[in-house]
Design a protein that fits this description.
Number of helices: 22
Strand content: 5-15%
Number of domains: 4
Number of strands: 14
Mean pLDDT: 89
Largest sheet: 6 strands, mixed
Low-confidence stretches: none
Oligomer: single chain
CATH superfamily of the largest domain: P-loop containing nucleotide triphosphate hydrolases
Length: about 550
């Protein structure tokens, strides 16, 4: 195999394991459908993973076979050597297409070559590449399939049978999600699971440098400073980036600095197939109404983060409070203040067995490639799963386990800050809320006094071009809701603006009419319950208004 120093880390690990005889079977998972910069001099080329394995890892192997469900078994190198095998399919006969027959044939050939080596010392290096291995040998969680299990057992022998281990025989299985592959293979200790990551900035920079003669117009602004677009576009696949370069070059357009943030959002969301929303916030904590103690704490955390002082930097936050209190808005304000993007997880739960876990694998791979970011999980009480596996084929338990492991991964400290949001934090598993996963729990409340309610409504009416005078407070005070959430205030501001424009009323007259007809979106008893929950979850009493602290008179 190739010299490890010339390879990316994951490829160097394969070489080290193979050359040391620690492993001969490799399950490559993660970013396996992306392009890679192929080795060699001359015009740079991007190719698929199987091409990279052939050219960068096993260029000296005499016989290489590949298999996928669409194309069947094929000899891509060493046709004459393979044909010398007495049991090789004769000329004119088709190579097997079904998984069982293909695996059988390959196993017999590998054993034949091993026996020849034992008999006369003649050694033929053989490699086998199984594309989309999960389609040929799926996990089928919760089901029994004897034919499938038989195929998996046979593949397992490639990494465990002494005769095959002694022979220079290397096998590579490609699957995007490890959970989709049969567990007899994915959990085999003799089989090495190798994650292929998204291209890191250094790899992107080298790719841009090598591709610059091919895309001179698109990459013109970045000559000799490839690290800038590489850093900005980290998290995107090379497939998406090359598609962008081709489009820009065709249109004779350069990739400008102003393009980069927008392009990253477009590319990352496209690659993740609607599993995440990439948010570049344009507001700061100055846009957050009230809650001065909370804002001061968050600004201190941001300062520590920017200084790379991580000793007191939280791994995660929990924002909890009644529905409509602006938890998502606070996340955006926090991210804008810090100057980092928000990756919002969405739609990762799937009704198909195994798909949810695969979606999470894809998301985690993206997070490993991104720079500093907040990871936002809304309605965390529903999204994060439970320890119990009753009633959902174990999906909830597996989601819980995967999320718990990732949220407590200390390698993420300083890169990823988790933010959970919920109006029912009591339904989130206690272990997921513990320090080391969620260090700071911040309650978010509706307005608690008429003055606070008026201030919030006035600020939102100003944004809607229906400004209220300070003097309007006394007129509106008797009608202001006992509790007013930002969501409800936003709805009221829209209605006030509508009346101003359609009925030719003053802002005060319109506000009074709207308040008289106001109907709370959340029942009083539910609102009180959710407020009490938020108070009980708070990690610091300074986050809680004095009138809501234990021992205070009821609001």
């Amino acid at each position: 195999m190739s010299t490890p120093s010339t390879l990316p880390a994951w490829a160097a690990e394969i070489t080290a394991l193979y050359e040391s005889h620690a492993a001969s079977q490799f399950v490559l998972h993660g970013n396996v459908h992306d392009s890679l910069l192929l080795p060699g001099i001359g015009e740079p080329r991007l190719g698929k993973l199987d091409e990279y394995v052939l050219e960068a890892l096993i260029p000296q192997f005499e016989v290489v076979l590949t298999y996928d469900l669409g194309g069947g078994l094929r000899v891509v190198r060493g046709q004459q050597t393979f044909a010398a095998w007495p049991s090789a399919p004769t000329q004119g006969s088709a190579m097997p297409r079904a998984p069982r027959e293909a695996i059988d044939l390959l196993t017999h050939y590998a054993r034949y070559a091993s026996n020849v080596r034992r008999a006369n010392g003649a050694s033929t290096r053989i490699a086998f590449l199984l594309r989309d291995a999960h389609l040929a040998i799926p996990s089928l969680q919760g089901g029994l399939n004897y034919d499938l299990n038989a195929i998996a057992l046979q593949v397992k022998t490639w990494a465990n049978e002494t005769l095959l281990i002694e022979h220079p025989f290397a096998t590579f299985l490609f699957t995007e999600n490890l959970n989709d592959l049969h567990p007899l293979i994915s959990r085999d200790p003799r089989s090495a699971n190798i994650r292929v990551p998204l291209p890191p900035p250094a790899q992107l920079a080298e790719t841009f440098r090598r591709l610059s003669p091919k895309y001179p117009t698109a990459l013109a602004p970045w000559q000799d400073r490839w690290e800038v677009p590489a850093s900005q576009l980290s998290g995107a696949t090379l497939v998406s980036i090359e598609s962008l370069l081709k489009t820009k070059e065709f249109r004779r357009e350069a990739i400008s600095e102003n393009d980069l943030s927008k392009l990253k959002k477009e590319l990352v969301e496209k690659d993740c197939q609607d599993l995440i929303e990439f948010i570049e916030a344009d507001r700061t904590l100055d846009d957050l109404h009230g809650q001065e103690n909370v804002k001061e704490w968050l600004r201190q955390d941001i300062a520590l983060w920017q200084q790379n002082d991580l000793a007191a930097m939280p791994m995660g936050y929990l924002f909890c409070g009644p529905v409509g209190t602006g938890k998502t808005y606070m996340v955006e304000c926090l991210a804008g203040e810090a100057g980092v993007p928000v990756v919002k997880l969405k739609n990762f739960r799937d009704r198909w067995v195994g798909s949810t876990e695969g979606n999470l694998e894809k998301i985690f791979s993206l997070l490993q490639a991104l720079g500093k970011c907040y990871v936002f999980i809304d309605e965390a009480d529903q999204a994060l799963g439970k320890r119990s596996t009753d009633g959902d084929s174990g999906v909830g338990g597996r989601v819980y386990s995967m999320m718990a492991k990732e949220m407590s991964n200390m390698a993420n400290r300083g890169r990823i800050v988790w933010i959970l949001a919920s109006s029912r934090p009591d339904l989130i598993e206690v272990d997921l809320k513990r320090p080391g996963r969620v260090d700071v729990k911040i309650p978010i409340f509706p307005t608690l006094t008429p003055e606070e309610g008026f201030s919030l409504l006035r600020a939102l009416c100003k944004k809607k071009q229906a400004p209220l005078d300070k003097e309007a407070f006394e007129t509106l005070k008797p009608w202001l809701p006992h509790w007013l959430t930002p969501g409800a205030a936003e709805s009221l501001a829209v209605k006030i603006y509508r009346l101003v424009k359609t009925k030719n009323l003053s802002s005060t007259e319109a506000a009074l009419a709207c308040l008289k007809d106001y109907q709370p979106a959340v029942a009083t008893e539910i609102m009180q319950f959710q407020i009490d929950l938020a108070v009980s979850e708070a990690s610091d009493l300074s986050f809680v208004p004095r009138e809501l602290r234990p021992g205070a008179d009821p609001v």
